[in-house]
Write a structure and sequence with these properties.
With 320 residues, this protein is an alpha+beta fold. The protein folds into two domains: 207 residues, no CATH class; 54 residues, no CATH class. The protein has seven helices and ten strands. Strands 1-2-5-6-7-9 form a six-stranded antiparallel β-sheet. It is elongated and about 110 Å long.
């Protein structure tokens, strides 16, 4: 009787298992397809590829990218070669040192990546973006130059999540890298170019941990590249002095007589406001640390006082 019952239940179990796991099996490849990073270039640790852009769906309504895009190697050489980055390694000293912008990509990096990036932009879709990763073999913590690129509203948006020139703060425990550790990085643009001022309606809705980004006017810079007026931002890039770099949140430009437009004034006001906010945050953090040090010093003094042995009372000599 039991054998007959098992024989009758076996096909039923098979159908139940198929109906239960079938949708999961169909959904799994779909998830893998939508979340998969497709590599365009992968040599010597350098990776250029295509991935989903989280800022597209974060916008309401969704804001698709202007992809695929036709960007030549020379155009990318000028645009990417103009980007500078500054940062520090997570030490208190970095709060007080003036940032020293360096090229986001040095000359050797640019020669390697411009062609694969141009090819990736030809294949990327409206909901995707191009990502890059250039390793640092000398780093013990896996520091690398990593980030992404995408075109939207004629702007080239550059996102940087890591840079191999700035060492990650030592966790003293070999922990995995914290995605929130941006090393104090800020992006700049080398002269003669300036960062694009993107209106609030066209500003991408950035992902939570993608706070280091800058926008370039791709149309203007591409026109300069086609006219052969790339200026100093071509091959053979060397470290740029701080005065040659412009950041929308750091450097306040000196006004020139009779040439200031309302847009320039608004930009300068925004720069000044952001600089004041950054300074206030640093002062608040320093004040908090000073209070913590004072409390710790008071606690140590109390412990020392409690640990001191009491001196025995001395008897006065008897009077004759």
């Amino acid at each position: 009787m039991r054998i007959a019952l098992n024989a009758w239940l076996h096909p039923i179990r098979s159908w139940v298992l198929f109906l239960t796991l079938g949708p999961v099996g169909l959904a799994l490849p779909a998830c893998q397809i939508f979340g998969h990073e497709r590599l365009i270039y992968n040599e010597h640790g350098v990776q250029i590829g295509i991935q989903t852009d989280p800022s597209v769906q974060r916008s309401s309504p969704p804001a698709p990218n202007a992809h695929p895009a036709s960007l030549s190697s020379q155009e990318l050489l000028i645009m990417l070669g103009s980007v500078r980055v500054s940062g520090w390694s997570g030490t208190v000293l970095g709060w007080f040192e003036a940032p020293r912008p360096i090229p986001l990509f040095d000359d050797a990096d640019l020669r390697v990546i411009v062609q694969p990036v141009a090819e990736a932009f030809k294949q990327v879709g409206p909901t995707q973006r191009v990502f890059f990763s250039l390793p640092n073999p000398k780093s013990a913590y896996g520091d690398a130059t990593a980030g992404s690129l995408f075109m939207r509203h004629s702007y080239l948006h550059v996102v940087v999540t890591d840079h191999k020139a700035f060492a990650r703060a030592d966790t003293a425990g070999g922990d995995d890298k914290d995605v929130r550790d941006t090393k104090g990085m800020k992006l700049w643009v080398a002269a003669p170019y300036q960062p694009a001022v993107v209106s609030q309606s066209n500003e991408p809705d950035w992902a939570p941990f993608e706070t280091v980004h800058i926008s370039l006017n791709a149309k203007e810079m591409s026109a300069r590249a086609r006219n052969g007026a790339g200026g100093a931002v071509t091959t053979g890039i060397t470290q740029a002095p701080q005065a040659d770099a412009v950041s929308p949140t750091q450097t306040i430009r000196e006004p020139s007589a009779g040439t200031e437009s309302p847009q320039d004034l608004k930009l300068q006001i925004r720069e000044l406001t952001q600089s004041n906010l950054d300074l206030r945050d640093r002062l608040n953090e320093q004040t908090r640390q000073v209070h913590e040090l004072k409390d710790e010093l008071a606690r140590l003094r109390q412990e020392l006082d409690r640990g001191k042995p009491k001196s025995p009372a001395t008897k006065k000599p008897a009077s004759p």
